[in-house]
Amino acid sequence: MHNITFVRGDGIGPEISDAVMEIIKNAGVDINWDVQTAGADVIEEEGVPLPERVINSLKKNKIGLKSPVTTPIGKGFRSVNVQLRKELNLYANLRPCYNLPNIKTRYDNVDIVVVRENTEDLYAGIERQIDENTAESIKRITREASEKIAEFAFNYALKNNRKEVCVVTKANICKLSDGLFLESARNIAKKYNSVNFREILVDNCCMQLVQDPNQFDVLLLPNLYGDIVSDLCAGLVGGLGVAQGANIGDECALFEPVHGSAPDIAGKDLANPTALLLSAVEMLNYIGETKAGAHIKDALFNTLKQGIKTKDIGGSAKCSEFKESIIRNLQVC
Ligand code: NAI
């Protein structure tokens, strides 16, 4: 029996969470879910969007699955997602991006892993209003965090038979901050002779990704570029509905999709649960339930091959129909 924290999120969070929990149950994995709520909905009762109980549950269980939580734009509380990553020191954000069966995309054989530093950069939220017409944000980069994420990226490449790590910065302009990130990556690269090391500027990287994504293997980026570039990569393989992710630290790991709470489709049974399901598969692999992980992945791929797809990836199935089909395929695989 595994004790795992589940943050159900808001927007499309509850619908995709329920679908994924049901699929995992049907795959026969024995999980005791500690379901937690966070975000705007809990402020009224508990006064804060991220109550201590959520952090404590994750610290205790050391493994979590999370659906998206809405962050108010331009005002309001600080992102629950960013706070969680910071509080639990989930320093590595891992976002694999690859083609799935029967999803029409511009390129075949895309297989990119985005490794994003997850605790600093402009995400540290160090901002101030200087006067009515001027505001500033501080971009903080440290050698410690940069070397740690570079080590993670090279280690990941080595363990997963990846050929290259490409560090992505804007060190020609942000000479000190991105310069430090780049220098840290260069230092760590020297220890990994069997993995090729490449450097690219983020603007060129975006253009190259759109024109010829097959040239890339593992991308290593500071927090903000990592966030933006991973959405671009999601677009290469079918969109946010299929883009999985994981936040990994030394003590704890929290698996969550790349996408947000999708308020435009929330509550309509239109959401694609694939991104959360693939994040859950990685979580199962992480806790040693590799057989169940492979079984779920097969059932998902068979569902897609049978042409059962949600609207975002060119089909007409509702979230609930898609889930039912995956469960049927679990029973026949
Ligand atoms: P979003 O990712 O929620 O949605 C962007 C577009 O993708 C929308 O058209 C949406 O319908 C579609 N989409 C996203 N996930 C989908 C799915 N599973 N199935 C089908 N279509 C899907 O990004 P947006 O609108 O910029 O952000 C909405 C909220 O989510 C914001 O408050 C933002 O702060 C929050 N957010 C939370 C994240 C998290 O909890 N880790 C990550 C990103 C955003």
Characterization of the model:
- The protein has 333 residues and is an alpha/beta fold.
- Helix content is 41%, strand content 18%.
- The protein has helices at 13-26, 40-46, 52-61, 80-87, 143-159, 177-189, 202-211, 223-236, 274-286, 290-305, 319-332, and strands at residues 2-7, 31-36, 63-66, 92-98, 111-117, 127-131, 134-137, 164-169, 196-201, 218-221, 246-248, 253-255.
- The relative contact order is 0.17.
- The model has no long low-confidence stretch (mean pLDDT 96).
- It binds 1,4-dihydronicotinamide adenine dinucleotide.
- 1,4-dihydronicotinamide adenine dinucleotide (NAI) binds at residues 12, 68-71, 81, 240-241, 256, 259-265, 271-272, 275, 312.
Structural class: alpha/beta
Mean pLDDT: 96
Overall radius of gyration: 20 Å
- So how many helices? 11
Strand proportion, as a percent range, falls in 15-25%
- Got a strand count? 12
N-to-C terminal Cα separation, in Å? 24 Å
Form type: globular
| Unreliable segments of 5+ consecutive residues | none
Order of helices and strands: EHEHHEHEEEEHEHEHEHEEHHH
Going across the biggest sheet, name each strand in turn.
2-1-3-12-11-4-5-10-8-9
Biggest beta-sheet profile: 10 strands, mixed
The helix content, as a percent range, equals 40-55%
Cofactors, ions and other ligands in the entry: 1,4-dihydronicotinamide adenine dinucleotide
